[in-house]
């Protein structure tokens, strides 16, 4: 009897030990996700990727989960993966009025800008110019490719609205990662917020005031134009010793956080984010020039 019990007791002890180890590993993983950013002395850094990006230094002292919360969808948006989970008690917070409308306007703007980047609309020369590399490169004559599929444009937009949410929620805070908006960027942000808040008011009273479809389309187009000015201003930011003084670069550091496993996103997983930013900003530059030309033509008429 004793010989039969011994293997059973040993198996039970092994099972209990494995269960305790799994619990401990889970606690460590959860603590890792919630841990404040430690800077370049972080023990979780396993390669030189952060030495290139400088994300850990820029976000040092801020809680990971709170930073991830800054890029989650606002009330009224459609949550997109991997940020579908909303915290308990999630509700529209003070200062977020109109954020959902601004994100929707940015998505419409990106779609409209990419659709404009066609040789029969803006000309092949414009697409070659915006896609040029260094002077003398053979690829300078390769036009900007803007025939992405709908799902690709959607993925691009997902990254862009995360940047918008981050800047919207943090730019006026006393304690935030050390970035600064230029006077022009601040004016553009205030204009977007003002127009979006008015849209909230207009939409809520749409049935009572009898607003026409043309009025609604005109209001939304104004918001899109304000968003276009905001994004152009955000990228018109001189980078000095610390590139993270730019709101765009600060937001891209937050997008480098791994929302699923904790820690930082590896370079291979981060490349699509950079591709989305570069592709869309080129489309926005072309679209901005196209709009200015069209507006001037209408004025002369």
What are the low-pLDDT stretches, counting only 5+ consecutive residues below 50?
86-92, 204-209
Number of strands: 0
Shape: elongated
The gyration radius over C-alpha positions equals 24 Å
- Biggest beta sheet attributes: none
Q: What portion of residues is helical?
A: 55-70%
Q: SSE order, as H and E? A: HHHHHHHHHHHHH
Distance between the termini: 103 Å
Number of helical segments with 4 or more residues: 13
Brief description of this entry?
This protein is an all-alpha fold and 301 residues long.
Describe the structure.
This protein is mostly helical and 301 residues long. It folds into two domains: 34 residues; 264 residues, no CATH class. The chain is built from 13 helices and no strands. The longest helix has 34 residues. The radius of gyration is 24 Å and the shape is elongated.
Descriptive key words:
single chain; 301 residues; mainly alpha; 2 domains; 63% helix
Question: What topology does this entry show?
Answer:
Layout: H1 2-34, H2 49-53, H3 55-58, H4 64-69, H5 99-116, H6 119-122, H7 124-130, H8 150-170, H9 183-204, H10 206-209, H11 213-235, H12 247-255, H13 267-300
Helix pairs in contact: 5-8, 5-11, 5-13, 8-12, 8-13, 9-11, 11-13
